[in-house]
Amino acid sequence: MTLLTVDAAARRLEGPSADGPAQELIDAGFAWEIADAPLLHHGLNVADFGHVLDLMHRKIIPDDAAHKLLTVLLEANKTDAADFPYDARYGEPYNSRERHFMAQIGDAAGWLHAGRPRREAARVALRIALRRLTAELIVSTSAFAETTADFASRHRDVFMADQTYLQQAQPSTFGHYLLGFAPPAVRDCERLFNALGQINQSPGGAGCVNGTRLLDDRTYIADLLGFDGVIDHTRDAMWQTDTFIDVLSSATSVLSNQSKLAEDLEIWSSQEFDYVDLAGPYTRSSVLMPQKRNPYALSIVRGGSGILIGRLAGFLAVVKSPSARSDNLIFAYGEIPRALDFAAKISDLMKGVVGTLTINQHRMWEVLEGGFSQATDLAEHIMLTQKVDYRMSYRIVGETVKTASRNGLRGIDITPQMVDDAAQKISGQSLLLDSDDLKTALDPLAIVATRTAPGGAAPEAVKSMADGNSAAARQHNIRAAEQLARYTDVENKLIKRVKGLLK
C-alpha cells in the first residue's frame, strides 16, 4: 500500500467535519429540510416522549436525566412550531431540537440518542403525522362519496342524453351519470385504509440499519405510541419508501376522480350547455367583464389533481436511488404530509360544489328530446323484431338517422316508413315495423326504464346503487373518525403519563 493510499483512507475516516456547512448547502439543502419542521414538530415531540419512557422502562436512563428531558419535552410540546428555534444551519429538524435541549439541560439531552439515531425519530414522527392526515383524507373522501351518492339519488329522475367524447350517446339520467363518481371514491377510501394500515406500523427501535441491543423488545414503544404493530425488518423500517408511494398514489387517485367530474361540470356550466349552475360561493366573478361568473372552484380541483400527479412523479423520481440514502426520505417529510393535507382540502371543496349544484332539468330534457340518443335501442329493436343481424341493423339505423337529421327531424320523429326506406337502400329488404312499438322504442323515458339490471340507469336501480354507496361511504367516515379519536386518545394518555411522572 502506497503512502497516498493510506492518506486517502485516513481522510475517509476523519469523522465529522470541524467546519460549518457551506452557505450553498444551507440554502439549497438544509433550508429545504427545516421547512418541514412544522409538519414534524408534533410527531417529534410524541416520538421523544415515547423514547424517554422506553428508556425508563428498561432502566437505561438515569432518573435525573429522564426528569430533565421530560420537562423540556413538555415545554417543546406546548411551543408552536413557528416559535421553536429550528435553524436551517443544522439541517434536519431534529438537529435543532438536540441543540436546543442541550442548551436547556446540558448533557442530559444526549440520552435521547441512546439506541436511536435522529433519523429514526424523524421516521416515527413522519408516520405519526401521516396516520392522522391519511385518516383525515378518508373522512373528506368518504364525505364526498356520500354527498355525491345522495345527490345522485335525488336526481335519478332527471333525464338527459349521456355523453361520450362530448357526443350524445344514450338516454340516461343525471343521477346515473353523477353516481358513477361515488364508487371510485369509496374504493379510494379502501385504498387509503390499506395504506393507513401500513403507515401505522412502528419503525421504533430499528436504529440505523441493523437494530440496537438496547431496545430488544420493539413492541413496547409501538404500543406506547399507538401503532398497530412493528415493521419487522429494521432496514425496511428505516429506508424503504413503498408505503409512502402507496399513500401518495391513493391521494392522487382521489383527486383524479374528482378532476374528471370537475371538468365535466365546467363544460356543462357553460352557456352553450347550460346543464348546471354552481352556487355563488363556489364561483368567482370577472373583474373586467360584469356578465361573467366563472366556476372557479372547478379550476382549483382540476389544478389540484395536476399538482398531486406532479408530486407523485417527482417523489418516484427521487426515491429510485440506491437503498439507505437520505434523499429517499428527506423530501418525504414535507411532500407527503402536504400532499395529503391538500388532497383533503380539495375533496372538501368538491363535496361542497356537488352538494350545492343547481340542475337545469328543462335544458337537459330539451337536448335529449331533440337528439338521436335512441339510435342504439332502435337498432336493437329492429334486430329483435325483424330478425336482422345487429351489424345490418346498425347500418339501417345509421342511414335513417342521417336522413332524419338532414330533414330537420328528431329521433322521436322517426317513422316506420323512414326505417323501411333506409332498409331498402342498405339491404334491399323491406321492414314491417309496428308504429306503436316503434314509438315506444324511441321514447327516452321508456328506454331508461328498461335499464333495471344492476348498474343500470333506471331510477330504481340508481337508488339502490346510491343507497349502497352512501352506506359504504358513511361507514368509512365513521371508521376513520374513530381512528382519529384513537390517535388523539393515545397521545393525550402519553402526555398525562409524562406529567404524572414529573409530580
Brief overview:
This protein is mainly alpha-helical. It has helices at 3-12, 23-34, 37-57, 63-78, 93-105, 118-154, 174-179, 182-199, 219-224, 234-239, 242-268, 296-319, 332-355, 361-370, 375-386, 390-406, 416-427, 435-442, 444-449, 459-501; strands spanning 159-164, 167-173, 201-202, 229-230, 276-277, 284-285, 293-294, 358-359.
Description:
The chain is mainly alpha-helical. The protein has 3 domains: 21-114, Fumarase C, Chain B, domain 1 (Orthogonal Bundle); 119-174 and 181-361, Fumarase C, Chain A, domain 2; 375-442, Ribonucleotide Reductase Protein R1, domain 1, CATH 1.10.40. The chain has helices spanning 3-12, 23-34, 37-57, 63-78, 93-105, 118-154, 174-179, 182-199, 219-224, 234-239, 242-268, 296-319, 332-355, 361-370, 375-386, 390-406, 416-427, 435-442, 444-449, 459-501; strands at residues 159-164, 167-173, 201-202, 229-230, 276-277, 284-285, 293-294, 358-359. The chain has a two-stranded antiparallel ribbon. Strand 6 (284-285) and strand 7 (293-294) form a beta hairpin. Helix 11 (242-268) packs parallel to helix 13. The two termini are 62 Å apart.
